[in-house]
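Two proteins were folded this term; both appear here.
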Amino acid sequence: MTTTAADSAPASGAAPTETAPAPTDENIWLEDIYGEEQLAWVREQNARTEDLLEDADYARLEGEILEVLDSTDKIAMVSKHGEWYYNFWKDRQNPKGLWRRTSWESYRSDAPEWEVLLDVDALASADGVEWVFHGANLLRPEPGQPYRRAMVALSPDGGDANRYREFDVETRAFVDPAAGGFDLPTAKGNVSWLDADTLLVASTAGDLPRTASSYARTAVRLRRGQVLADAPRIFEIPEEHMMAIVAHDSTPGFERTFAVDWIDFFNRRTSVLQDDDWVPVDVPTDVNTGVHREWLLFRPQRDWTVNGTTYAAGSLLAADFRAYLAGERELTVLFAPDAHTSLQSWSWTRNFLLLNLLKDVSSEIRVLDPADSWHSSLLDACPPLHDVNAFAVDDEDEAERGAGDDFWLVATGFTTPSTLTRGTLTRSALARGTADGGASDGTAAAGVVSRHAEVKASPSFFNEADYEVQQHFAVSADGTRVPYFQVAARGLVLDGQNPTQLSGYGGFEVSRTPAYSGTIGRAWLERRTAAVPGDGFAEGHSRGGVYVVANIRGGGEYGPSWHRAALQENRHRAYEDFAAVARDLISRGVTSRERLGCVGGSNGGLLVGNMLTRYPELFGAVSCGVPLLDMRRYTKLSAGHSWIAEYGDPDLPEHWEFIKTFSPYHQLKDGVEYPETFIWTATSDDRVGPVQARKMAARMLAMGIPNIWFHEALEGGHAGASDNRQAAALQGRSQHFLWKALAEGTA
């Protein structure tokens, strides 16, 4: 891989010596995901919720969201392989999508001519399976030959388990297994080409062992014509670790095979195959590594001391790959974080390294030249309060006039539709002020020149000029300044009466950055209140919604330390941060408890579940999606065991003492005035699973808490939707619920 996300910090739990007592769970019967009685309960709740929400306004809203998702004018993002540019596309006519390709000349035109390789809707119809396309891994061809073979990943229900099938992009057909084509059973795992007739496979299929987290525990070398059961095992990890991964780097002159023992979410051990033996890359398990040609990169998650020198957590270091494996420890610092700036990701072109940084949650991009002592140049492409990411077009293109040092820039902002720009990096003694041919030019300091020009722009889906983006800082309980973005109409009236939607995540070092959303624009910002005397709004004045994104601890906005600050026993800090933002919005007069709602999914669902139970006095409504909520049993449900490093191990009595304080399922109390609540999930979610959402809704309903609503999509995986129609319905229900609760008071 040449683009490497900056991963998160370690926090592993130990194996329990005694088990914490399990609280009474009257709803454990709902954990049978596909049980007849359980699904009958789901359908009953779905019908009740649909009766409430699916009125004429909802139908209009869902249609407007679907129009955004199905737009044929949105940017078709591509990946380059050889001379072709590949894209996966969904729209109204192709709800499950088309895998297709085109030439560069065609792609840059207003109406590209696409060659359709795989019609997933037609495949699903022919097979009688609701296939969801999860990507394709193309085999590097022999020099001078075109890319031809790919392993296509297809999920039968949108979950994480995939069936991998070999596909010929020239004939546009799957390779018949009877003729030797690879066809792997549906399972969790990964696949990498070793050569034209061999795959490296980590899989849970058949009798292959799996970890306690439900992922692959072993990897095999699979020859063409073999079945998985007969393939020799080449790598294995302990059952209590998270997953095994195998991959082959086919870069000419730098061919290497790697295996990763992913111990938990933030700890891993990488090994390289040498003379049929796995040789570990000798670093602490919380130091992330990346390889490009002769270079080995390191990103420590905690301060790392090597030969008497301490390197800060979140820094980026480089060493010669072969020299490091041989025992040398000469490290070069490529990036060092400060109080405002963090490394989010990096990407290699053939000769240069692109660093994607955040400075107080606004993007900054730097270009490093290893041939010039890693000279660093600023890429002038990042407006304030925007998210801009740079990554290589095709670092493996070695043609004399090829794209090896080309890069993509994807830029977006809350009120700025996304743009796609393509640029080229070259070495120069002097920086240039303008590019030839009238193209826009981002200049850098002497040493590296960037020429780049816009290729595509997304359409506008709402009147962005009517709105402004502001960044504010709230002060959390321990004095930490927490940034948040506010998107609202210009001239916003600060009378506490604006319907406000507060979104957050706060986990796994995931950063919430500015991003354009036609759905938020249409479903929230442009939606108008009715000016009814006595409803709390200024008489005769209608208004739209306010959208807020909180950059709380647990996320990655300020690097590993920002994440570590809210791990395990310190989880409460993420919730205190989010509550501080809510209070700041109220104290500034943006909104009030009755007009303030919060929304989050997955770990963000756990976040808003804690707003529901810990801070009910701050919110009028909560939209809680695909959530973790039962933190006593989360390690035993779906892939939950893999998150012990983030939350702790509830089987350990000392861990359960702090985990139970942020387990919403166990924090519900009688006599509390809870916000109106919508809990939504998906039956086929095999990552978090639907049962935590089911049990939370069932307990709240049994307690007689009013205005509790539940909906479970019967397909769609962890995203809750496998096509645009399902996504529009999911987003429409959440947005409509919040609007009815906060702006109309009728949910």
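Next, the second protein.
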Amino acid sequence: MVSLTASAISSSDQVIKSEMPLRIALLVLPSPLDLSANVEQTSELISVLLPELHSSKLLQSSELVSVQVDDFEANLTATIDAIEHGKIVQISTATSSLLMMHALKAAQNRIHPHAQLAAMQISSFTQSESTTLADSCMNKALGQAKRHADSVSKRFDLPQLNSTQQFDTVCKLINDLACRTHQRDASSISAKQAANHYWFTEHHQARVMAINLTNTVESTTSCISFIVSQGTGFIAAKSIIDSKRLQFIVSANSEAELLNELARLNSKLESKQAAAPSSILTLMRDNLLAYEKQHNDKVAIDKYAITLQANSVETMQQELKAMADALPKIISEQGQYRTPAGSYFTANALGTVEQNGLAFVYPGVGTVYGDMFSQLHRYFPSLYAKLERDGDLKSMLQADTIYHLDSKVAPAMPLGDLAIAGVGSSYLLTQLLVKAFNVTPRFALGYSMGEASMWASLGVWSDPHALIEKTKTDPLFTSAISGKLTAVRQAWQLDSTSPDIVWNSFVVRSDAKAIEALLPEFPRAYLAIVQGDTCVIAGCEIQCRELLARMKKRGIAANRVTAMHTAPAMEEHRNVEQFYDQPLLESLPTDIKFISAASGDSTVSNTTTGIDSQIIARSIADTFCNTLDFTALIHSAQKQGATLFVELGADRQNCTLIDKIAKQDRQCGSKSSDFPCCTVPTNAKGGDDITTLLKALGQLISHRVPLTVSPLIDGLNRQIALEQLASAACAKQIKGKQMSNLTLQGEV
């Protein structure tokens, strides 16, 4: 190991004159990890925090140069020179650290860098010449990187920082690049908006940063310009559970065993309460490993499982007591119990391999909201990277609108954009649950256009992304059943001289029969949706309001123009069918029953060829153009065996509706009340993304749905390693102070 400082450079005024790209791979290191320390001592930490670097054995085979930042410009010049001579370099301050090596060396050792330094230029001018210094220096760097100015995704101008601040700031920007995180200016957003979210980019376009560091001393201004592009790697996922978001699983086969396990966990918590933070993390990790082992080994799975969630050890102990107190009644009544913190237990598991009543439910248009999913990318970076490779993620989520700084933009999205973002949100959450946690449904169904989300998300359509541009431009969505409502004008036999249609829809608390009895008197008002104890009427706003007045009911106006599920939509039936006639994948799911609202059963297939694209398209068209009876759809799903309804999409509107349908069934003594029914939202507007997801996982675990918790275990392993790293650094610092004090005492 070699140590370099600014004194190793012959002149701190040296200027980088190379015209060739630098091609230097950058890895963001967790601080205060010192790669030059004893390899045996750091090997275990590196294996968890930097597994690629560990498996490459690069630290044992290459000369490592350690640079402590004291003169950033000189340090970087020395670093680049060392890298050109085949060395790898760790450059650090007390709070930030980068590992730098030639990109070819990284590729040869199968290391995916977080970023790549493509250019570095240093310029100095007198004050009279410095008005365009940053532009001039940056243009030189762009020339060195062989890039045009329009390829730069973001430019950062950072004046008057000292060397340590310069390095720390550059590391922070590289970290954001590796996290694919866009940082918003706090002064430009409301209190409800996210300060950061996913850094979206155009499809197949890499993220590139231009960073300009300027400093003025007396009459001279100097500038360092960097061009940094994203690497093939990304910062490891944040841990889903940690010392402020606790989760434990307690399982057993009887009430007595459960109570014993709860008491045993409480004793462990008491013994760990005053210990180091890593102790509670280790306890959670070991608890999850035991759960994972039982399911992986496919040994006899415990009949019951309780998931416990809390934000501290103290509140976890309160959750334990509350659960223990409630347990006898829950088991005797075969009921369920949940706490506001997210702890959950059911005595009637609906997701076991034997019963398997798991159904994925897909919401329709209008559930998406501004800043949705703003946290997810930091916890599932590999998922986002895959989605970005597979298609246009930015368009799929309509990011320009959903994450617009003006919070009024998202609610005003046109129908086509709402449809795209709705399918996109369902697709993302489905991939998360299926790919990350290995959850597979037995049934699938959709509310309205949720049927399209169902086919797009569950491995049926070969290229669902192809529908994005079609949805934005096809007259079906832009003018036929929205906008100018040409389908309605045709159905109502209006000519071009007729005034514009004033259309609206209203949610009203009423049964369908009461509305249907009055519809003949209001020919331009329609019963669009039946959903439990409420219905949606749509059509000419005047006639809808007259209908409501006649019923002596108050309706909640949606103020959205869409003629879906009304008689005029039948004018577009053939166009809808053609729009959704999509090519299918060669290998199709065989273990999922797809239930259509049009037919009410799971026979969306041809008996000889299996799932058929034309039958799918016709089913979507039938659902699209007729009244949607969501109540009947849920009842049909229940009769076929669906009991555990997991909503895959933005917000939790379908869960609310299904809960109301089940409640109504119980109150009126419907035959459907004989079927168990439980809903699980995976997202909730106004809630914390990860907390809601963790609660959903907790419900699924208690319902004994087969799944993996490896993402939770992996996150805890990294978190434990980081805690150990911080503890070791703290101990080293304390020891250093003690030695310093001893020396001073000796001198006295």
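The chain is about 45% helix and 20% strand. Residues 2-230 form one domain. These notes refer to the second protein only.
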